[in-house]
Design brief:
The protein is an alpha+beta fold and about 60 residues long. The chain contains 1 helix and 4 strands; from the N terminus they run ββββα.
Length: about 60
């Protein structure tokens, strides 16, 4: 299953989490995932992709 989220460097030491399907910055709890430091962004993108895979797997089982 392809990852839904990826990282994009905006400026040195400033990263954005991008939704691959829409091309737009991701939003989590009404916060746009932009201007993040590299470590925070890497940790968050991994967590978001794990949650998304689980969500899609649950949706496939219901079909």
């Amino acid at each position: 299953m392809a990852n839904r989220y990826t990282l994009r460097m905006e400026l040195p030491q400033s990263w954005t989490i991008v939704d691959v399907f829409t091309g737009q910055p991701a939003v989590v709890r009404q916060k746009v995932m932009v201007g993040m430091n590299p470590r925070e962004a890497e940790d968050m993108v991994v967590q978001m992709n794990v949650r998304d895979v689980r969500r899609r797997e649950r949706a496939e089982r219901k079909d």
